[in-house]
Every structure is written in structure tokens, then in C-alpha cells.
Amino acid sequence: MRFMTIDSVAENLAVKRRTVERLIKSGQLQAIKVNRMIRISEESYKVFISRNAIRNVDQNQAFNRHSTFDSLMKHFGSCSNAKDDYEEILNYIKENRTEAEF
Predict the structure, then answer these.
(1) Does 102 score more than 80 pLDDT?
(2) Rounded Cα distance, 17 and 15, in Å
């Protein structure tokens, strides 16, 4: 098992040393103490990274959002008269709520 220092973790994450110390203190990043030195296992570091990774939006979901917006724009135009069409737009969104994600 390999270990990293607080400074090396901070450098890898492009954050300050104090940020890594806070992550350890809060329990978000597991560490061990050897005498007076704190070390983070590579495994613990990888777990932290995977828990905090931002997941990519599903390609189909992104496509559906774009399609919903396009269909609204085609249906209502550029919305320059949005005040006049407010009720119609609101009803359309309510009826298509499952597809409409803004």
C-alpha cells in the first residue's frame, strides 16, 4: 500500500494544504497518523475522488433537453410576445412537464 502526504494530495487536487486538512478533519478523506505525520493512502484518495466525481449527463437526457427547448421555440417563436402567450406557454409546459427540464 502506498501513502501520500497532505502536501502531495493538495497539489494533486490543486487546493491549499488547509483544505486537505479540513477534508481529513470532517471525515471526507481518510488518513492515518504515523507518529506526528499524517498520511493518506492512495486507495483512500481514489475513494475520495470517486465519491466526489461529477457524473456526466446521460447523452440522451442532454438531447431530450435540447429537443424540448427547440420544440418550445418552434411552437412559440422567439417569445417576444411572451406576455400575450403566457397562459398558452404555461399550459404547454404543464402538459409536457415530464419532458420539459430547464
Answers:
(1) no
(2) 7
Question: Using the 8-state DSSP alphabet, how is residue 29 labeled?
Answer: S
Contact 60, 101 (CB under 8 A): no
Q: What is the CA radius of gyration of the chain?
A: 24
What is this structure's pTM? Answer: 0.54
Dihedral (C-alpha) 94, 73, 79, 75: value to the nearest 10 degrees?
Answer: -70
Nearest Cα residue to 48 out of 18, 76, 26 = 26
For residue 93, the tally of other CB atoms under 10 A from its CB is 14
Euclidean distance between CA atoms 50 and 15, whole angstroms = 17
Tens of pLDDT along 14-69?
A: 999 999 999 999 999 999 999 999 999 999 999 999 888 876 555 555 555 555 55
Confidence of residue 13 (pLDDT cuts 50, 70, 90): very high
Q: Are 41 and 32 in contact (CB under 8 A)?
A: yes
